[in-house]
Amino acid sequence: MARSKTSHRWLKEHFDDPYVKMAQRDGYRSRASYKLLEVQEKDRILRPGMTVVDLGAAPGGWSQVASRVLGDKGRLIASDILEMDSIADVTFIQGDFTDDAVFAQILQAIDGHPVDLVISDMAPNMSGVRAADQARAMYLCELALDLSARVLRPGGDFLIKIFQGEGFDTYLKQVRERFEKVQMRKPLSSRDRSREQYLLARGFRGNDMDMDAEAFQGS
């Protein structure tokens, strides 16, 4: 089947992209690795020995960056509906993290360690219908925030991809209620035409929820 003009333009943009070339050179699985690297350079959210949860991790670009910083004493639990090739010292859990069984596996992998940071580069499959795509993207953000509230230690941090549009202001208010400080980041490696930004929330205020699967199932 012949490729469409749109497909040809995407392929040309992709292979001409300097961050794609850098990822190939540096051994990263995705150009998205540089988005996390830029946030790390500015905000130092990753430190050796931390416990980190990476949502929507496939193909593993963010997990690669995080695991290199965390080192041997760190703990990184990655999860995605899609398969992901293994990365040394990364525990990968395939499945929908909103399912009770998958959430229980994440908790088991955390093994009682306080979670210092939750990161998420999730995005829905885009249909091209902006209103529908925005609604799906915000839904994923809400689910990631809910998981973060259940696993983060008081004082922990949360980094998530988010799109400006319907539901953004309400979500921002919810995050500000849970965290001491909220900032927006637009890495240089994020394409100019993309509406994506990264919300960085620091200093989780904590809550009264027990971090266990039973509490999750009862919600």
Question: Layout of helices and strands, plus pairs?
Answer:
Layout: H1 5-16, H2 18-26, H3 33-43, E1 51-55, H4 61-70, E2 75-80, E3 90-94, H5 100-110, E4 115-120, H6 130-151, E5 152-163, H7 168-178, E6 179-185, E7 196-204, H8 213-217
Helix pairs in contact: 3-4, 6-7
Distance between the termini: 48 Å
CATH superfamily: Vaccinia Virus protein VP39
| Total tally of structural domains | 1
Low-confidence segments = 1-15, 209-219
Helix- and strand-based class?
alpha/beta
Largest pleated sheet:
7 strands, mixed
Briefly, what CATH class?
A: Alpha Beta
Strand count: 7
Q: What's the arrangement of strands in the largest beta sheet?
A: 3-2-1-4-5-7-6
The number of helical segments is: 8
> From N to C, what is the helix and strand string?
HHHEHEEHEHEHEEH
At CATH's second level, what is the architecture?
Answer: 3-Layer(aba) Sandwich
Q: Given the C-alpha coordinates, what overall shape results?
A: globular
What would the CATH topology be?
Rossmann fold
Portion in strands: 15-25%
Q: Level of helix content?
A: 40-55%
The radius of gyration is 17 Å
Keywords: Cytoplasm, Methyltransferase, rRNA processing, S-adenosyl-L-methionine, Transferase
Main location: cytoplasm
Active site: 161 (proton acceptor)
Family: Belongs to the class I-like SAM-binding methyltransferase superfamily. RNA methyltransferase RlmE family.
